[in-house]
Amino acid sequence: MKPAVPNSELRQIFGGSSLLRKSVLGALAISSVAMLSPWAATATDYKLKIPFGLEASAVVIPADNPMTVEKVELGRALFFDKRLSADGTIACANCHQAKFAFTDGMPVSTGIGGQKGGRSAPVSFNRVFSSAQFWDGRADTLEAQSIGPFTNPIEHGFSSHANMVGKMKKIPGYNKLFMDVFGEEITIANVGKAIATFQRTVLSGNSPADRFDQGGEATAIPASAQRGLTLFRDKARCTKCHSGFNFSDEKFHNLGIGWDDNKVDLGRYMVSQNPEELGAFKTPTLREISRSAPYMHDGRFKTLEEVVNFYNKGGVKNPHQDPLILPLELTEQEKTDLLAFLRTLNGEGWQQATEPKSFPQ
Known about the structure:
Strand order of the largest sheet: 1-2
CATH architecture of the largest domain: Orthogonal Bundle
Strand content: under 5%
Order of helices and strands: HHHHHHHHHHEHEHH
């Protein structure tokens, strides 16, 4: 979608304020997309609030899934409802808990019957800025990601999406809500649209690091973290992958995880069949990183200290390791400073993502 006001005019209006200009452009784009809704006469446009430090112009909202207040609330119910699993014990929220930065705090996720998956739960905030989802990017959209786990035999455990929709149709409250929000009966596509819409409201920004680096607030982070920021951009080479406002290049890299203990997960290669992506995984955001332990796609590292030491050694060498991964030769003080900076990346914008007081009956 193009903004209603030409970019050239916005530049004249807002001059050199790129952050403000991007925020206005993003807000216009969001409003324009929302106007496409066939239910605009009855739906309430959802005004996405982008915390400081994030870029509103980078949001990814499909034209066929505009954000409305009603759809957000339906998605909230679906996200937290354990009835949307084969045995009624697992909700999306089981693996994406606010207290663990919307992970589950475990090395690998647990689904129905206590079954263990093969990968850790990735964070589910700031997904509005990304198209490809999951560690291996196998879902092209947040809508596709939102319904993927339902038919995973280890996760939600439904034999098919049709089986899940059949169970949902036995709940009168959901029948009414889907008719109100989408103007049609429950479909798995609209389940995905509703959950994705809710997930797009879960954000993390306005961290102390943002206020120091972008806001010019000199005392927002301590001196050690300020030194760590310099290391982050320079000697520690972190921005080679953890770049941009969301601290992720949205690309896939082989760090060597699993090559040291013969537990190699082929990762992105299973999706792309590209030999250059064998053992590669998507760069996660570093926002809220101090709350999302354990780390890596298999949850092998319990602490950030272990992660920094891993990178300092240059990962694990293997035939497919990304050439960006090199030994860093950080001193102990430099590692301490880098860790201090990483711990300033906790922010706000996710606190409203709470469980509904009641569910459709």
